[in-house]
Amino acid sequence: MKKVIPILSGRAAAPRFAGGPLADTRGRPMRDLRISVTDRCNFRCVYCMPREVFDSSYRFLPHSAILSFEEIARLAGIFVDLGVKKIRLTGGEPLVRRDLPRLVQMLSSLGAELTLTTNGSLLAKHAAALADAGLDRVTVSLDSLDDATFRTMNDADFPVAKVIEGIEAAAAAGLSPVKINMVVKRGVNDGDLVAMAGRWRGTGHIVRFIEFMDVGATNGWRMDDVVPSAEVVRRISARWPLEPIDPNYPGEVAERWRYADGGGEIGVISSVTQAFCSSCNRMRLSTEGSLFTCLFAQSGHDLKTLLRAGASDEALRDEIAAVWQGRTDRYSEIRTLETAKRPKVEMSYIGG
Ligand code: SAM
């Protein structure tokens, strides 16, 4: 049995949060919350959950270990009180968690923007129910339009056409603009990036090209596999000229570019070549209720024990605030070949 063990640490008693704007040690506000609702996924993307590690003997979390919808909703309310403006449900694959629209409905009244990242495989089935429950938008991962390449990358023999059906169902349900994430790996799917841009140009959907990252410890990351965003922009621009545009808000992950001819926009996410740690405003709540202040973290802060021991909202708020206020992370600014080998927590566990 192979298991990638997340390393978790507890925290000493937290000082009480005195109110006011919440900022970490580098002055960064807590604005976005990513909630992983499951560590399971029906894909085995080679760069994220390689089948050799996440095989039939891999021990995923038992149901008793993962936060219930009620627990998630309670914590999410506290995060919103602390200033969170946007909540993203992720995983694993969030749509493999049964009854997800019920959680969406519970979160929809909190007043934060509510979004979901999915591989799209189950989206055609659930898009209308998610929209009815109050989801605002959806991001769908799609790494190639070439069916053979896509099937190889998801390693679940899943066809492109079904993901496109999901994207269309999401748009029809009003979950737009749909964002489409493509992780670009050199020699694997970088030959498809211009076609991907062309497929969604003029549709109102926004493709975001993501640099392959050294998340977790199982994906065999090498710098040679990374296609820098500058090259992505250059290659698309050679076909349809692009011009940069301002972010929608400070700390937006994707750098925005628009087609000079009015064909819409794309985004590039350059975690490797242009670290954006200095404006990172994201907190992550793992499937089993630990807080992570960085995607590349080696350890988390257990919140579930406090929650299940009957802590008051105030105590939970103080704990969350103290974790954020003590945050020093800037992994992408200090990444080296050595740090890439560190035992980091897997993205499927912490939430992408
Ligand atoms: N299952 C959902 C999905 O496929 O979108 C949500 C979870 S997934 C971990 C979230 C996003 O992280 C996906 O767009 C995925 O492609 C991206 N991702 C996973 N591993 C990555 C890596 N090593 N580098 C860059 N992006 C990665």
How many strands appear in the DSSP assignment? 13
Q: Find the structural class using helix and strand composition.
A: alpha/beta
Strand line-up of the largest beta sheet: 1-13-12-11-2-3-4-5-6-7-10-9-8
Number of helices: 11
Small molecules in complex: S-adenosylmethionine
Structure description:
This protein is of the alpha/beta class and about 350 residues long. About 30% of the residues lie in helices and about 15% in strands. It contains 11 helices and 13 strands. It has helices at about 70-80, 100-110, 125-135, 145-155, 160-170, 195-200, 230-235, 305-310, 315-325, 330-335, 345-350, and strands at about 5-10, 30-35, 85-90, 115-120, 135-140, 180-185, 205-210, 240-245, 255-260, 265-270, 280-285, 290, 300. Strands 1-13-12-11-2-3-4-5-6-7-10-9-8 form a 13-stranded mixed sheet. Strand 6 (about 180-185), helix 6 and strand 7 form a beta-alpha-beta unit. It is globular. It starts with 6 loop residues before the first strand and ends with a helix. About 45% of the residues are buried. The model is unreliable at about 1-10 (pLDDT under 50). Bound molecules: S-adenosylmethionine. The site of S-adenosylmethionine has 20 residues, from strand 4, strand 6 and helix 11.
